[in-house]
Design goal:
This is tRNA U34 carboxymethyltransferase. Catalyzes carboxymethyl transfer from carboxy-S-adenosyl-L-methionine (Cx-SAM) to 5-hydroxyuridine (ho5U) to form 5-carboxymethoxyuridine (cmo5U) at position 34 in tRNAs. Belongs to the class I-like SAM-binding methyltransferase superfamily. CmoB family. This protein is α/β, with parallel strands linked by helices. It is about 30% helix and about 25% strand. The strands form 5 sheets. Strands 9-8-7-10-11-17-14 form a 7-stranded mixed beta sheet, with helices on both faces. Strands 1-2-4-5 form a 4-stranded mixed beta sheet, covered by helices on one side. A two-stranded parallel ribbon has the order 3-6. Helix 3 runs parallel beside helix 7. The longest helix is centred in the middle third of the chain and has 14 residues. The chain is globular, with a radius of gyration of 20 Å. It starts with a helix and ends with a helix. It binds S-adenosylmethionine (SAM).
């Protein structure tokens, strides 16, 4: 069974200490209630991942674990077969003992767009909300973060993360907890909070912004990346049904609207640092994710539109700082 006890030990004398009042009971409930589905099968695979400490790791320019020289061709094939049991792999890529996990998303491209604009992560305590398989968490560690905590309710992403961590070395201060943002108490503790690719999945985006704010220390930095549309501060798309075949998209604001929402939630120093139309090369079907991908979500006769006729996915990265609490918002 996946254990969170080393995380509890590591935060016992940190500024996340007060999380221990509620976290063990929430995760204990998760462990008791997630006995169904594929989790037991994936946990068995995780228990087979006993491999040598990697002779090299790189989290600065990529996520690379092991030079590829430590395993025999037969051992490499066996490891690849085990890792394929966690398909589909969506967020990556990972290079593990010479095995290239070519994921659906080039998450490294997103990191390249974001990293140049954020406050240096050196010695910072970081929260990655909706972290997926944890790809960006390894890059945050590579950028010098003291501790990286990711939350994501998907059991498959947890298992993919655990697989990578077991191969990288369990001592790395990177942790994924199977939680939704709504399950976190206001921790007021993180130096940087990332929410990338999550806001449009939330039914109440303003509440999402307030929940993110609650996790930051005063003066801490929010890095928000989300789908946007063109338009002024009153422009918000609420798809009637699906958007790009996704059935869980609620609000896609314009950059101006999003900046207004952040201001209303009492963030300061709000700046949009990047906008980008998602390229077909960034999100695509691969050998490790053989299902439909972006090309099937777009209108084949006009790739500037989704199959539903909305604007094709465009993303913005916005950075903002947590201001002193505003009493009006606390009520
Ligand atoms: C589009 S993915 C983004 C992954 C990654 N952050 C990235 O930018 O590539 C959205 C992620 O949010 C997670 N998610 C969904 N609901 C959530 C919630 N309530 N709290 C935290 N994460 C959530 C999903 O499981 C999924 O992994």
């Amino acid at each position: 069974m996946i254990s969170f006890s080393s995380f509890y030990q590591q935060i016992a004398d940190s500024n996340l200490q007060h999380w221990l009042e509620t976290l063990p009971s929430i995760l204990g409930k998760w462990q008791r209630e997630h006995k169904h589905g594929n989790l037991p099968k994936w946990e068995k695979v995780l228990n087979k991942l006993h491999y040598p400490v990697p002779d090299q790791v790189d989290f600065i320019d990529s996520v690379t674990i092991g030079s590829g020289e430590q395993l025999s061709p037969g051992e490499k094939e066996k490891l690849e077969n085990l890792l394929r049991l966690f398909m589909p792999w969506r967020k990556g890529p990972f290079h593990i003992h010479g095995i290239h996990i070519d994921t659906e998303w080039r998450s490294d491209w997103k990191w390249d767009r974001v990293k140049q604009h954020i406050s240096p992560l050196k010695n910072r305590t970081v929260l990655d909300v909706g972290c997926g398989s944890g790809y960006h968490m390894w890059r945050m560690l590579g950028a010098g973060a003291k501790r990286v905590v990711g939350i994501d309710p998907s059991p498959l992403f947890l298992c993919q993360f655990e697989a990578v961590k077991r191969l990288a070395g369990t001592h790395h201060p990177v942790h994924l907890l199977p939680l939704g943002i709504e399950e976190l108490p206001p921790l007021d503790a993180f130096d940087t909070v990332f929410s990338m690719g999550v806001l449009y999945h939330r039914r109440s985006p303003i509440d999402h912004l307030l929940q993110l704010r609650d996790q930051l220390r005063t003066g801490g930095e929010l890095v928000l990346e989300t789908l946007v549309i063109d338009g002024d501060e009153n422009a918000v798309l609420v798809p009637e049904d699906r958007y790009g075949k996704m059935n869980n998209v609620w609000f896609i604001p314009s950059v101006a609207a999003l900046m207004l929402w952040l201001k209303k939630c009492d963030f300061t120093d709000i700046r949009c640092v990047d906008t980008d139309i998602t390229a077909l090369e960034e999100q695509r079907r691969t050998d490790w994710m053989p299902n439909e991908s972006l090309v099937e979500y777009l209108d084949p006769t006009d790739m500037t539109k989704t199959v539903e006729g909305y604007s094709a996915p465009k993303r913005a990265t916005i950075i903002a700082v947590k201001n002193q609490p505003n009493q009006d918002l606390l009520g």
